[in-house]
Amino acid sequence: MQKYEIAVIPGDGIGKEVVPEALKVLETLADIHGGLSFEWTPFPWSCDYYVQHGKMMPDDGIQTLQNFNAIFLGAVGNPQVVPDHISLWGLLINIRREMEQSINIRPARYFKGLQSPLVNPKDFDLIVVRENSEGEYSEVGGRIHKNEDEIAIQNAIFTRKGTERAMRYAFELAQKRRGHVTSATKSNGIVHSMPFWDGVFDEVKKDYSEVETASYHIDALAAFFVSRPQVFDVIVASNLFGDILTDIGGAIMGSIGIAPAANINVNGKYPSMFEPVHGSAPDIYGKGIANPVGQIWTAKMMLDHFGEEELGQHLLDAMESVIGEGIKTVDIGGAATTKEVTEALIQRLKS
Amino acid sequence: MQKYEIAVIPGDGIGKEVVPEALKVLETLADIHGGLSFEWTPFPWSCDYYVQHGKMMPDDGIQTLQNFNAIFLGAVGNPQVVPDHISLWGLLINIRREMEQSINIRPARYFKGLQSPLVNPKDFDLIVVRENSEGEYSEVGGRIHKNEDEIAIQNAIFTRKGTERAMRYAFELAQKRRGHVTSATKSNGIVHSMPFWDGVFDEVKKDYSEVETASYHIDALAAFFVSRPQVFDVIVASNLFGDILTDIGGAIMGSIGIAPAANINVNGKYPSMFEPVHGSAPDIYGKGIANPVGQIWTAKMMLDHFGEEELGQHLLDAMESVIGEGIKTVDIGGAATTKEVTEALIQRLKS
Ligand SMILES: CC(C)[C@H](C(=O)O)[C@@H](O)C(=O)O
Ligand SMILES: CC(C)[C@H](C(=O)O)[C@@H](O)C(=O)O
């Protein structure tokens, strides 16, 4: 009997609605397939927690999380209560960095039954490998002067190690897929970090001569995600560019509410974290209408990560079938509640 | 008789094909409407020029350009010959900065007869005001160490002056339009420059209390450009975010090949520069199939800038009518050549 010990952080807003639903689904899968079980340990770390304790998580939070097989997180952020840069850097980004989850992988693909905003959404199936530990997201920088003379400086920091790690991950993933890697650059406008990025890409690709490559500036690439997403297989991107591309990936699928993500620790020192692309959506929190599919698809990525691909495939098939039947939340053109979607999915898994 | 003296820089690739066509169109308009004339002064500054002279433009280039009423530019870049960061910073970005063209405005709207990749492209009509002089595009930064220890640092620099200038421009434009400004931020991930950006936005908006505002993180905003572009009026964005959003704007119209742009000098010290969103497209250069509409629509922005709105409207109407009839280049689903499109447009203007 394989037991998986999972730290569960619902976080804020709709995270608190969709995480419990995803856990029900995972329990159902474990019951059906047998041979494995989950032990869930919930942590209330969130903006509410901040209000009570003055921090997003306890000082020994990272140490606590270290003992789990994985972290399953909902969403973080409630800007009415805590400014985003404090809540996110105090919890989500803090975990990504401290636990060396240096790669963020986010698939996007045509999903039957979803209303894509695209005329021709068929047959796209791509995955963005996002550098998750450095780049444009850096705490280095600051301000000088006041009022009309004020200046803010933000440093983006790209290391050879971090850049190469993301690229190698992308190439290795492409070898298991359709053998194509696209690099997201902007070396025509951003003249230090991006020519560096291009140089590392040119070197790394030599080690994967059977993988085809392309390189586009982020502006053109974002446009191509809309005009011809079908041409892409694996895309490797910096922290910011990966963030932007994966939201577009969600949009062309039909809703950011279904897009899944995994924050992968590649050195084996810490657990990985599974967290959907969508945020905490305070505007719809509490209405019971949040789309649980992003969180549930994220659960599938966790299963795959554990090597439980059979369960993952079972789950994905059931998701497609339920959505295909029109049992879906309002953001993707349905009328079902969060719980109704999960309930239908659970019935489908059992049948 | 009003005479406009225009510096013409076709630049590289398809810039050399579409600029002459746009000039023909402008000549036709001047003939038809009377009361104005153009004097074109061509400059061969480009990557070819670089090969001959070791620089993209002469040392006194900026001084030379200063004497014109406007600069009309095609596209810059031929990476086979000159690395992009050298060609762009040596010519396009050099002019933007030296001539204090601190605002880049780029409209995107539903265009009858264009095949948008969106199921529902109708009725969107937005304009991106892009900060054009600083931000993420900065020459400040560098590298340290070699090989596996190499690190690249890129500074993004946001001044109060530059940020506020772009925002005020956006608010004033919104007052003449539908009275709504959206700010593109990413303060949840980028913790120095973007909270600064948000703070300036919050202050500036107080001076325009009749204008409604919204603020979205760039990832969500890029997704909204795809899922519901109709909700936007004026969007104000940093240099990089504006760059990305406007390529998506081109994509949802149906092609980046039609998107126009203007680099505006707001202090009256230098001429403004009119340059379409698309690049030099070396892959299709020389085939006679480049879409001239982006360059021609850009010419309309130049006319508007001169206060010649009547001519601008005449041109836009003729463009819509020609495209609506299916006389268009291959990138937007037609079979016409560059010259055929212009010829049809000129006939329409005359009729
Ligand atoms: C060519 C490049 C430097 C330029 C930019 O990013 O500004 C282009 O993409 C644009 O949008 O005008
Ligand atoms: C909330 C925010 C900091 C985060 C990010 O930009 O990384 C989110 O957009 C994401 O993509 O996970």
The CATH class designation of the largest domain in chain A is Alpha Beta
Oligomer: homodimer
Through-space gap between termini of chain A: 24 Å
CATH domain fold name of the largest domain in chain A: Isopropylmalate Dehydrogenase
Specify the helix fraction band of chain A: 40-55%
Largest sheet of chain A: 10 strands, mixed
Radius of gyration of chain A, CA atoms, in whole angstroms? 20 Å
* Spatial sequence of strands, sheet with the most strands of chain A: 2-1-3-12-11-4-5-10-8-9
Number of strands of chain A: 12
CATH architecture of the largest domain in chain A: 3-Layer(aba) Sandwich
Mean pLDDT, all residues of chain A: 97
* CATH superfamily grouping of the largest domain in chain A: Isopropylmalate Dehydrogenase
Overall structural class of chain A, as computed from helix and strand content, comes to alpha/beta
Beta-strand share of residues of chain A: 15-25%
Series of H and E elements of chain A: EHEHHEHHEEEEHEHEHEHEEHHH
Low-confidence stretches of chain A: none
Shape of chain A: globular
Cofactor (chains A, B): Mn(2+); Mg(2+)
GO molecular function, one term (chains A, B): magnesium ion binding
Catalytic activity (chains A, B): (R)-malate + NAD(+) = pyruvate + CO2 + NADH
Family (chains A, B): Belongs to the isocitrate and isopropylmalate dehydrogenases family.
